[in-house]
Each structure stands twice: as structure tokens, then as C-alpha cells.
């Protein structure tokens, strides 16, 4: 539970975030004289180094409130603030109430702190037989008058956690059919939202053979879900997210090492669904279609083969060179579906290529596109929510790497060069020259340990970027 207050109370523990090497307790509204002395003494002793925090008791009793002093530093203040807030949320998670205040920090500090509290306290869903129920959640009191910022921060943090939970669930629990059911349940009764589900028969009528080909080897049916949010007027923004519920690689089978992480290959769809929920909760004054193609890529007697040729719904024929390059196939038909809505712009998001990990490591999302205005807005919007994107080129020369002898285009270059770029170049064939950008979140889809506001497992990558983009996007 998160709320706001105008001044500090003495009965609850306190987290003080500050920038630089100076903090005077009198800067803290309502601070008790005794607490003021304790804080000033520790500041005079220079005990709090940049990007670090100290915690101390206010009295010599076990149940006395504690104070944390956290130095966010002068550079990368937002990133440091989020990291420290996530750590401190776990540090204080057994306390009944915690107060948070920031001195000389970013103007939107409360927005980021509230997100980081939610994200730092996230718990991966599990099926352990000895699992104990969580303690009663702490009450967090943000010392600020910015109630709207706090409210939006809470929505964004919860949205990221929803995306994480979808991507962390085992594929035998969150099947294609169950994911569709969960999406319907999430938006039932939500104002200005309608959910349309295309089953395989409906997709066949629309000639979505690129999408259907990927799922034909699975016992679970394929779907396309359109979450339409009608919060404004004019042309819609269309956001498309890859939803491969599990990816074996198909006939082009993946190595077994870490294949279990492919339950998270629907991370793009998870981010899109979570972003749709957040946009609706915020009441954004725009029209947006959130589109998720949903399949499972399995090995079976009916699975798609390398060498097959499929025809997408816009008439483009595709030679399959690698069945493990399946995400771009389902996105192809989903993008064509989106173009028919005549949107102002298109964005797609996917855990698409291992090459993105090689290019950027785990520190940034690859972004490419055919319209610099959309790309620039996406980079700026994601940065404001503390998700880093880095642009890669999309020169026409790269399409030469996708030439086929028997079809209009290959689904994947058979060499090793420019994997992330050629994947985006393939997708460009299906956007009908509309303003478009592509996010490859394979590089940031998961983390191997818990630190700051990141918790071991799937990260909910791209959720914040999408929410911020929808909020900030201007006509292009």
C-alpha cells in the first residue's frame, strides 16, 4: 500500500535519499529533534558514500524505527535512486510502515521511487510445496505533494510486475489458450477497452499463413489478440508484441542449455499486455491498439520445416531457412493486421535475436526503424522511464542478405552477420511504409541475480518504454 504525506512522522522508519555530499536534517519537514541529531552526526562523519546507504536504529530497542541515508550521487541520479530504492524496499520489507523522502534529487523522484518499491519487492510465481504465505505488506508513505506522480509510478511498477509474471510462468501453465483467457480476465470491465480474439479459423480467412505456420507443430492453438483502447480521437497508435509461449526452435532445434528460459519468449507480448493495462489505468487521452500474436513453436510431425515457403497476409512469400527465426514470422502477419487500422505509427517489441545480446550485452534494448521521428521519440520516452534503448542502422543494403531464389524474402540470413538488423529489415516488409520502430528486447529479457529494482528472472523489459511512449508520443 502506497500513499502520500506532507511531513515525517516519528513512529515509522524513514528512508532519506539525497544527492551529493550535503544533507542537513532541517531540510526534512516535520523531523524530530532527536532524529535530526542522529542524521547530522552521520553526515558529519561522512559515512554515506555515493551509490551506498547506511541504516541505523533511532533508539536502543529492537522495535525502534530505523533510518536509512542513501546517497544517489550527482551523476546518473535516477538510475542510482531506483537501484537504492529497490534495495531498501527489500531491506525494510518486514516493517509495518516506511516513509520515503528525497532531498536535492530529480524532480520526479517520487515517480521512480514508487516504481522501484513495487519492482524491488516483486516475487516470482512458483509452485514450491513448502511455500510460505507473504507477510502482511508494508505501508509506504511518500513525503510529497505529487499525488499524481505517485499514482502513476505505482501503476507502472505494477504493470512491470504483471509482465514479469506472465513471462516467468511455465509454458505448461501459461499455454496459448490460458494466456488468451488471462488477457480477457485482466481487461474485463476496464473502461474504454475492448478485446478481440482471432482464432485459427479467423486467421486462415485473413491469410495469416506466416503466423499459422509457426504454431502448426504445437498441440495448442494459435491466436491473435487485439486489445483496443479508445481513450481519445484520431488515428490510433499500434503496438505489436511477439507472443511465443515456448520456443524450442522447431526443427532448427535450440541447444538444451538454458532452453527453459524460452518460456519467456513471449516477453514482447507480456510487455504489450501490461502496457495496455497501465495506459487504461492512467486514462491516457489517446487511441491505441495493442496487438499480440500468440503461438507455441514446437517440434513434431506437423511442424514447419526449413525450405518451406509460406505467404503472409500481405501477399509476400517467405522462404523458411531457419524455424528458430519464428518470432518475425508471427510479427509479420500481426504488423499487416495493424497497418489496416491506418495508424499514425507502429511499434513492435520482441525477444527476437540473440544477436542483440552480442551487440549490446544486457544493458540496452536495440531499436531500429524506418522513421527517425518515431525512433527518436521512443528513445527519449524510454529514457525518461529509465529504460535504455540504442539505435542500430537499417540501411537498404541489408535486405540483400535476405534474398531468396524461390520466394520474395528469406525469413533469416543464413550467415552470422547483422542478425538483429536483418530481422528488423525483414519486418519492414510488412509495415506498408508507415512510420515504424522495432524494439529487440532479447538483450534485457532476464537477469541472473537480484539487484536494485531488478529481481532474478524475467524483467518485464520494454513495459516502461511502451507506457512512456504512448504517453509522450506526438504526431509524426
- Gross morphology: elongated
Helix content: 25-40%
**What is the CA-based Rg, rounded?**
24 Å
User: Alpha-carbon distance between the termini?
Assistant: 39 Å
Query: What's the number of domains?
Result: 2
Q: Report the top-level CATH class of the largest domain.
A: Alpha Beta
Task: Estimate what percentage of residues fall within beta strands.
Answer: 15-25%
CATH fold-level name of the largest domain: Aminopeptidase
CATH superfamily of the largest domain: Zn peptidases
Which stretches are poorly predicted, pLDDT < 50 over at least 5 residues? Answer: none
> Could you report the average pLDDT, rounded to the nearest whole number?
96
Helix-and-strand structural type:
alpha/beta
**What is the name of the CATH architecture of the largest domain?**
3-Layer(aba) Sandwich
The count of β-strands is 20
Instruction: Summarize the biggest pleated sheet.
Output: 9 strands, mixed
What is the number of helical segments per DSSP (H or I, 4+ residues)? 13
